[in-house]
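Quick illustration, no need to memorize.
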Amino acid sequence: MCGVSVAQVAGPPPDQPAAPEPTATAAAPAATPPSRADAFAEFRRLFDQKQYPEAAAAAQTVVDLTNPKAGTGGEELQVALMNLATVQYYAGDYLGSETSYLRVIELIEATGRMTNPRLARANAGLARTYHAAKRHELAVARFERAIALSRRGEGLFNEEQLPLLEDYADSLSALDRMQEALQARRYALRIVERKHGAGSLQYAHELESIGRWYARSGAYDASRMSLRRAIEIIEATQGPGSPLLVGPLAGLADCARRQLLDPSQQALASADYDRSSLFHDPSVPAPASVSPSTIAADGQKALERAVEIASNRPDPSPAQVADIRTQLGDWFQWRQQPDKALPQYQQAWLAASRADVDGKPLSEALYGRPVLLYYTWPESWDRYRARPATEAELRNVELELTVNPQGRVQDVKVVADAGDPKLAGQAIRAAETARYRPRMENGQPVATPGVRFSQPFYVLLPPVPAPADDKPAK
């Protein structure tokens, strides 16, 4: 189990807030509620300031003030609802966003205008809302609808599909529908190749994206080949010092880390037939197997090169430097080399203090709290995972601990033992193997008490007693 250096946020819905069309209204007394135009202006102001919960309330006011019959097919209401759904998504109100998108879709379909571009955008927004909420079965169905509408309106190879195909493949992967996910990723690569060519920066970017997906899917050799091809393209077009190399180089390190932590890869002796047959291209010779030490060395070299590129560019980006140095620090930390991790963290903190995220210093996002990077899960935690819900349930042992300045765990206390002290003991032993990115204050690592740690276990339920025989004894 590993952390990431910078929080990854799901992409925004395809629609951005749109200005309302003016509605003719009669003169109103001064004491009446604000006009629809005023309500929209307030919504837009809050949205631009990223005050999403407050903006959602203002967007709801716009909806309430919109005449549902104004325009053709309630166009104004459709726009107002799309704005509401968008900001609800940003606010994390996925149920509210779902409801708003469904209302838009219902309004458009009631008009019979199935080619309306807003219908494709509403389905895409709904799909990405389901994806963000991890409701992947629903997400897949809506992605398929949105992609079909996009292709019908904009052509089979339009680039508007690319972010949809990426999230679509992610939801398919979550459902273990890997063959379909692979087809979606390859289709996205084909779109970019047709539009920009196989030697373009856009193609390199898509190769990086599919390479990272391969790594998440456990296809490590395919991941490395894609990422190295992306690096070759960038070097050929932009030179060996291009900051665009930082992304695929970090992707190579991430691939190495995932492979080294993958239990199925520990022996590196035999391949998973299903996975290798799924991702292997028969026209490309299978790469020779490599040792864990080689994988680790290659991953570290990739990160160190990325740090050098980011730090030595003529106009270094503080955010990029902070991000990639944090990743290198995390690499050393989970490799149990805290003496090498600390200088990277300190330089990353210094760079992050000069960059902002949502109006706050990036240093707060990266180092405002300990970040769990790795720990060894108890071997038996999922022993009963395959049992039906009537026989086993998932419970959590809750612990409280201190993360010291070296990122190690101490002073572990049991908050809740899931009904079994033996499970609590296993959870404590697991927590003690953990490695954290430590919290930093003024560029120095500090101890952090009161950190919560939760370890799940599948637990067998007691057998249900047979119904009592209510017949009187003879």
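The domain at 373-460 is CATH 3.30.2420.10 (TolA/TonB C-terminal domain).
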